[in-house]
Design goal:
Layout: E1 2-6, H1 10-22, E2 26-31, H2 34-44, E3 48-52, E4 54-55, E5 58-59, H3 63-70, E6 75-80, H4 85-93, E7 98-101, H5 106-117, E8 122-123, H6 125-132, H7 135-139, H8 150-160, H9 165-172, H10 176-190, H11 195-205
Parallel strand pairs: 1-2, 1-3, 3-6, 6-7, 7-8
Antiparallel strand pairs: 4-5
Helix pairs in contact: 2-3, 4-6, 8-9, 8-10, 9-10
Length: 216
């Protein structure tokens, strides 16, 4: 994949450049300041922008929407040396496609980038579960729906409609194993253990208005 890296630490950028290129990717640009991020993304139109949360000038979270507006197909994966649950929540709410701690191995970073590129929300399950336990999620039982990708909304629609794995696979034009993975990702994000719990959650708290237009 084609990647733009954004971090104010030159040594880290150089290390990531070598490591990611060594794994077959193409690092097409490296931004060392907030002001350089969006112009670099606009110039190179990368598949993924790997963006540090904290810069000397401030937080990069407001840039997420700017990057998506500049190049809609570019996925934004955030990284941080101190990934607090609050930061993870705000990043995802702002439209980030993933979030990874800086202390993770390069193989885990590579996997997160691949997941984001495939349309998944690439967040370590521990970070995601912690974020979902925050007070907002307790006040609103459906708050976790804000984490769903377009594909996972489609899967949720299938689950609520009572489809089995084979039927979901047919409906979404994917392999049975892929459908099963989508269902598991959906349940993880909702903090649930079964499809029945997902159906019960929507039945108890949902309405027609919660659904995106394309799956109503």
């Amino acid at each position: 994949m084609r990647i733009v890296l954004a971090d104010d630490h030159a040594l880290l950028l150089d290390a990531l450049d070598v490591a990611l290129n060594g794994r077959g990717h193409d690092v097409v640009g490296m931004a060392r300041s907030l002001d350089a991020v969006v112009p670099m993304v606009r110039e190179h139109a990368p598949d993924v922008c790997l963006l540090d949360v904290n810069f000397p000038e401030g937080s990069s979270l407001p840039l997420i929407q700017q990057v998506r507006a500049a190049v809609p197909h570019t996925k934004v994966v955030m990284m941080s040396a101190d990934p607090s649950h609050d930061t993870v929540v705000h990043a995802i709410a702002a439209g980030a496609d993933g979030f990874i701690a800086k202390d993770r191995a390069i193989a885990e970073l590579d996997e997160a980038l691949e997941l984001a590129l495939e349309g998944h929300l690439a967040v370590d399950p521990t970070l995601l579960k912690g974020a979902l336990r925050m007070s907002e999620s307790q006040d609103n039982p459906l708050w976790a729906l804000s984490f769903l990708t377009d594909r996972e909304w489609q899967v949720l629609r299938c689950v609520v409609d009572g489809m089995g794995t084979e039927e979901i696979a047919t409906s979404l034009h994917v392999k049975r194993s892929t459908a099963r993975t989508h269902v598991q990702n959906l349940l993880t994000k909702l903090g649930l253990h079964s499809r029945l719990q997902a159906v019960a959650l929507i039945a108890a708290h949902g309405s027609a208005d919660i659904w995106p237009l394309n799956v109503r």
